[in-house]
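Technical annex, item 7. During the second reporting period the consortium partners agreed on a shared format for inverse folding records so that results from different sites could be compared directly. Each record opens with the tokenized structure and is followed by the designed sequence. A conforming record, contributed by the partner at site C, is shown below for reference.
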């Protein structure tokens, strides 16, 4: 028996809740449907935490369904109570509009708007929420929601004791209204979102039922965590962005490459388009010798290609080879070098005058890399000193402008692993 599309999504660990699984299965098996997922503009880029819903849209398109990305230019002005346990900082209208456009462009790289059979759609809920009047909204939409119903939502109950503004309390009605508008104007019957969106999503299916007498369908995606229970998508407290200007393809590649053995295969199912059969083959080989890190390598390659493209992946691998296998660091973009070494607590930083050309022995002593001239000479003569990744064993060598990356710093390595950052001031 062949696995259905929805069954495969479950097998990949991508389904958490659904409104009516039997009806969803029947719909997906018999016809081409339209699925929408919303993305509120809380920054000028999405991060890896948004990859699961983004890729879900693409999965639906590959299965012959129409993906619809909703960018919340309207709801982004309000703030969702499921976002965190306190009120969200509200941004200016201009800021939200700018972020909305940035997300629209970013999402366009994941779903295909030129597909001959099922071209993707992108919509902005500001187009209708920005026009509706308060009285009209209360009369036509608000009448469908009781306070008891709204307070029963987990995202609201969690906030009742600490306090929740009417602004965020009403968010579920706005999201429900989005679903109704998309159902009426575009025939969209499916909505998906994160598991924390369940209350908002079912507000929409309920509103459609009350207003039209018809059924709409929904499911949620699980909250992805690491094997030790931590929230997925952060690296040392920093978000991993999808925008290459905020997180470089090299850093992005390394993030996936550094996933644990326990998570790597599971993430292949969640974050790639590899078939389950191919993933099973990778898992079998990986379990024979985890030291090969085969699962992590395939994961890093697949996801980096999806987000940044093949050329960016090749460059990331090239940079990785330089960092970990040896090579000229001047071939690595300066911003990547600066970010890597400035943020590494194990890398000592020393400042020297920008106009000073220094003999290598003098520089090693002045920057305290070597404790004495004698030790410095031994280090150089023994081939233990590397300037920007290239061994330098000439005692008479004088560092010059060519050794200054971006005209502002030099990386010196002593031995195999000890790095030092020399800044010119």
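Designed sequence (site C submission):
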């Amino acid at each position: 028996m062949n696995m259905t599309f929805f069954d495969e999504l479950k097998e990949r660990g991508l389904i958490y809740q659904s409104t009516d699984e039997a009806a969803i299965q029947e719909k997906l098996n018999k016809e081409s449907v339209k699925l929408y997922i919303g993305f509120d503009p809380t920054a000028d880029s999405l991060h890896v935490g948004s990859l699961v819903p983004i890729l879900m849209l693409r999965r639906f398109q590959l299965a012959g369904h129409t993906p619809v990305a909703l960018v919340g230019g309207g709801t982004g002005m309000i703030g969702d109570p499921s976002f965190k346990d306190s009120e969200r900082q509200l941004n200016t209208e201009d800021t939200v509009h700018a972020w909305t456009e940035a997300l629209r462009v970013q999402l366009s790289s994941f779903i295909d708007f030129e597909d001959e059979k099922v071209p993707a759609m992108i919509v902005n809920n500001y187009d209708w929420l920005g026009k509706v009047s308060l009285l009209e909204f209360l009369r036509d939409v608000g009448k469908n929601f009781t306070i008891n119903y709204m307070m029963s939502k987990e995202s609201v109950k969690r906030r009742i004791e600490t306090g929740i503004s009417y602004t965020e309390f009403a968010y579920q009605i706005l999201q429900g209204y989005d679903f109704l508008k998309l159902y009426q104007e575009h025939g969209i019957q499916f909505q998906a979102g994160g598991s924390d969106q369940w209350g908002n999503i079912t507000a929409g299916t309920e509103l459609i039922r009350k207003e039209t007498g018809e059924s709409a369908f929904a499911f949620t995606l699980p909250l992805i965590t690491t094997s030790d229970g931590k929230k997925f998508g952060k690296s040392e407290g920093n978000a991993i962005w999808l925008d290459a200007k905020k997180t470089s393809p090299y850093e992005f590649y390394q993030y996936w490459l550094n996933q644990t053995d326990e998570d790597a295969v599971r993430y292949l199912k969640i974050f790639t388009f590899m078939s389950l059969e191919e993933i099973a083959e990778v898992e079998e080989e990986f379990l024979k010798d985890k030291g090969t890190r085969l699962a992590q390598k395939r994961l890093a390659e697949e996801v980096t290609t999806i987000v940044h493209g093949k050329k960016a992946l090749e460059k990331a691998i090239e940079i990785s080879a330089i960092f970990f296998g040896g090579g000229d660091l001047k071939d690595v973009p300066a911003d990547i070098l600066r970010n890597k070494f400035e943020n590494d607590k194990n890398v000592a930083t020393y400042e020297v005058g920008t106009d000073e050309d220094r003999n290598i022995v003098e520089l090693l002593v002045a920057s305290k890399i070597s404790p004495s001239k004698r030790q410095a000479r031994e280090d150089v003569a023994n081939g233990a000193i590397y300037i920007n990744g290239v061994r330098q064993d000439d005692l008479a060598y004088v560092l010059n402008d060519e050794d200054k990356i971006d005209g502002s710093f030099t990386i010196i390595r002593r031995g195999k692993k000890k790095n030092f950052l020399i800044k010119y001031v």
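The longest strand covers residues 418-424. Residues 197 and 333 are 40 Å apart (CA to CA). All partners now use this format for quarterly exchanges.
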